[in-house]
Amino acid sequence: PTIEPTEVWPALPQSAWSDTCATLQLWMQMVGKVRLELVPPINHTWNVTLYPTVRGVTTGPMAYGTRMLQIDFDFLEHVLEVETSVGERRVIPLQPMTVAAFYERLMTALTSVGAPVQIWHMPMEVADPIPFEQDTIHQSYDPEYAQRFWRILLQTTRVFTVFRARFIGKVSPVHLFWGAMDLACTRY
Q1: How far is CA 40 from the centre of its chain?
Q2: Is there a contact between 139 and 94 (Cβ–Cβ < 8 Å)?
């Protein structure tokens, strides 16, 4: 069943989306590892996190030399966008494909925009990790359930933002740890 954009908290049964979840987690880990390589360490490891947007999830701007690079998952159009501050742009359709194929397309896109990045090839926080370039097992992508996941991230971001605004101390930005796809907001 297709969800309506007005459905605030869409259903996301684990049994229906577990294969897409596993694949998407690995794709997000690759993008997160690019951020890990390019962004200097920031307290509480906030330099590695991804951020919900009105269309999906982003790395935000990352320095590559004197230029900036940004990678966005767009769950409305179901594409991954790799963009630079000098106007280079590559788009990878989000569709069923192996983790190995996604890895190759991401690395090719980064190289073609003049920002080749070497990342550690092993997934984290998953049982029985397979190097990205060898993973032909995980290959599911159901756009409906990917979008449901993102819509839940957005609504949780809304709730976390109200939560963090009520505290006058130090508060983290709302961010997504890509290792286990944990959305977080911390008050100190």
Answers
A1: 19
A2: no
